[in-house]
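User: Reviewer 2 asked us to show a designed sequence for the structure in our supplementary figure. I'm pasting the structure tokens here. Could you produce the per-position amino acids so we can include them in the response letter?
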């Protein structure tokens, strides 16, 4: 009875407070849970009651900051690992294509320097083949024989040239298409780039001077198979876009690697050039021939568009796009330097009114811009 009276008195004291706080609740719980025969402290001071321990909270609530930090860092590291695997897959495919190429860039330059073949000799090959009754298809050996006949001497490193021709699509009898084979030999001409590309255009152009989409794709494919298109232009990592949550799939999934064929390279080049307005709408279809009533292919391109496609960043035959980009960077630096000299800063008062010196860029006939 005495213990019950003590507990009732403690309850009355707690009920007289303005508000019941957490310490009061804890003290009330301890009072009601005192076993029989025990003693109950009668102090009503809230400060004397110990606050709840940190270990009483759930584990997730106690360590949420560390878990959030670890999740962010882990997701970032995982995305780096996935992107590294995608790059390694791309490098592996590039290495595979490089090992399958009949010649590399250095060998192309050596073959051109060793043999000194003129562009006219390359252009005469279709007529020479026609006189031998091989106007459509021929063997690499016959083509090299006629090329030596046109040059007037034996070709050096002819086995490398034959290896390039054997890499082209051939039949069971070993014959290759004449247009593709002669186009693959245009690299050996010692003329400037524009002259070689013009000869390449003349091989496939129709009577209106235009090249159809199929012929253009066939030429690019022959150049690609013979090792005249850089390896890095033939490989691409397919972007799978974003998921429903707006996250890029490349962050958490290895992206597939794709090898381009000739038709895909041409399609990408035409799309990029048309978007940048380097090919007018009237140049891609044969507008003039259509107006004159001639039957022509719808996707044919003229000579200017043909040259832009082959030297574009998507095709980059003979690595010409790298040289064009380098010349553009040098030209931009010269223009910026001239503008700086023409309009110097205000603090360079000694340059005011002084005409800048004009420096002409050195030209190379072998790398004329197209």
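Assistant: Here is a per-position design you can include in the supplement:
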């Amino acid at each position: 009875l005495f213990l019950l009276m003590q507990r009732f008195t403690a309850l009355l004291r707690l009920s007289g407070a303005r508000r019941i706080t957490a310490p009061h609740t804890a003290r009330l719980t301890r009072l009601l849970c005192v076993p029989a025969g025990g003693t109950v402290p009668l102090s009503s001071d809230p400060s004397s009651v110990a606050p709840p321990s940190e270990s009483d909270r759930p584990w997730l609530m106690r360590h949420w900051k560390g878990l959030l930090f670890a999740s962010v860092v882990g997701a970032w590291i995982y995305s780096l690992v996935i992107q590294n695997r995608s790059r390694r897959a791309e490098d592996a495919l590039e290495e595979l294509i490089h090992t399958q190429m009949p010649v590399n860039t250095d060998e192309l330059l050596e073959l051109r320097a060793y043999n000194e073949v003129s562009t006219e000799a390359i252009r005469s090959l279709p007529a020479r083949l026609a006189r031998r009754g091989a106007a459509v298809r021929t063997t690499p050996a016959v083509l090299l024989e006629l090329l030596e006949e046109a040059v007037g001497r034996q070709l050096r490193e002819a086995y490398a040239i034959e290896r390039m021709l054997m890499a082209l699509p051939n039949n069971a009898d070993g014959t290759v298409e004449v247009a593709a084979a002669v186009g693959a030999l245009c690299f050996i001409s010692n003329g400037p780039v524009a002259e070689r590309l013009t000869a390449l255009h003349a091989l496939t152009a129709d009577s209106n001077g235009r090249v159809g989409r199929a012929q253009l794709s066939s030429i690019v494919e022959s150049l690609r198979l013979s090792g005249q298109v850089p390896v890095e232009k033939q490989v691409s990592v397919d972007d799978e876009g974003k998921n429903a949550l707006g996250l890029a799939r490349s962050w958490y999934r290895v992206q597939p690697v794709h090898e381009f064929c000739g038709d895909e390279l041409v399609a990408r080049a035409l799309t990029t050039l048309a978007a940048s307005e380097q090919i007018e709408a009237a140049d891609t279809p044969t507008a003039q021939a259509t107006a004159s009533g001639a039957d022509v292919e719808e996707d044919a391109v003229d000579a200017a568009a043909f040259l832009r496609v082959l030297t574009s960043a998507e095709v980059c035959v003979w690595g010409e796009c790298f040289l064009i980009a380098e010349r553009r960077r040098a030209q931009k630096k010269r223009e910026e330097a001239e503008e700086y000299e023409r309009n110097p800063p205000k603090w360079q008062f000694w340059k005011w009114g002084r005409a800048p010196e004009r420096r002409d860029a050195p030209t190379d006939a072998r790398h004329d811009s197209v």
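For the response letter, you might also mention the following. Residues 1-40 form one domain. The longest strand covers residues 235-237.
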